[in-house]
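ASSEMBLY PREDICTION REQUEST
Request ID: AP-0331
Submitted by: J.K., bench scientist
Number of chains: two
Total residues: 416
Priority: normal
Notes: Please return the full assembly, not individual chains.
Input sequences:
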Amino acid sequence: MKRRRSDAGELQDRREVDEERWATLMLRAQAGDSASYAALLEDLYAAVAAYLRKNFGALPMLDDCVQESLIALHRARHSYDAKRPFRPWLFTIVRHKAVDFLRRAHSRDRGEAERRAVDEPRGDDAAERFELQLDTSRFLTDLNPAHREALILTKLQGHSVSEAARVAGISSTAMRSRVHRALRLARRALERSSP
Amino acid sequence: MAICNAEDAVRRHEIIEQLSSDLEAVRPLAAPWQGAALWGAAAWAIVLALTLATGPLRAGALSALGEHLRYTFEAFLGLALGAVAIHSALVLGVPGAARPFFRVAAVLALAAAWMGAFVYGLWHPAFPPSMLGKRAHCMVETYLFSLAPLLLGMIALRRRIALERAWAGALVGAASAAIPAVVMQIACMYDPLHILVYHFTPVAALALAGALAGVVALRRL
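STATUS: Completed
Returned structure:
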């Protein structure tokens, strides 16, 4: 119990240090200091990757998502207000980009899969690896099995909606609705999560 | 795995290098209350000028503000709606500064209170309704006078990062129409039913138009 309390205390201290450091670096970056900005981005790259990994699991696309998040932070850097805490500003933008990224990946996958004429068989190893990655993802494990299966089949294994529907033994409309619902639930879970 | 890590490190280095080299200084956003005050001053000046340019204020309207508390309260609710809506819209333009739900709920509560005051007035008006001061085209004027504040609000919001663009736009729309609606309470005839139909409807309509304008005109992150 004591150990757990001390871990929580360390985490809190660490957060406070990060908060102060990031806020200071961002203020200098707003004034045009490249070195401070590079240092800030180094820190944020790791923090954003950790946040996304915690919520999405160790998926290969997360690196792209981290990069998009950093570009978004760069575009929005003038909107950081030194009178407000840094972390809510940071993670609101990251969350927004992550959901946007998921949504775009979903529609892109759907379009590509529907254009695909030939079925490509997928190895069991790959499927198991994706399952394992999803198991490490906090919010995906919160989804019910049907929604989770819908996301695994369409988003991670790249099946088209009709292929996924066939695998799950349901209609394409039902599968499409499950994927939408799963994404919505994932978004809510993300919004609830406090970084 | 080592190759993968090396590739990741290179990509990481590249993106940081790309973003941080030739970094330009940026002007931080003004505090939302400052933006709201500036917008309010400009919007009120424009709406008052347009109202006076198109017709007189209702005779005795200003003295009625001092004499009838209910009437003053009705005008105050409209004023408060405009102020809270524009402030909320500008706060929503700062990522992580507020939860949109609470901001929108506060504005909706004020709008409901304002509308409720007139609905109550249908049976118990603040003072006897009359046609005195009636403007022939008050509804059209309310819509038209809202356009300049809407445009100014959208310009102010475009520099910000409104992640919930539709909500932010709707708030700017409601604030923009609230000002001419309050001015019409003083300039046009007093009758709660007339106010509900001709002055209050534009507030709801402009909120919808603002939501659409927000989605189209506000920048995506």
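REVIEWER COMMENTS: Chain A touches chain B at residues 29-35, 37-38, 41-42, 45, 63, 67, 70-72, 74-84, 87-93, 96-97 (CB under 8 Å).
SIGN-OFF: pending second reviewer
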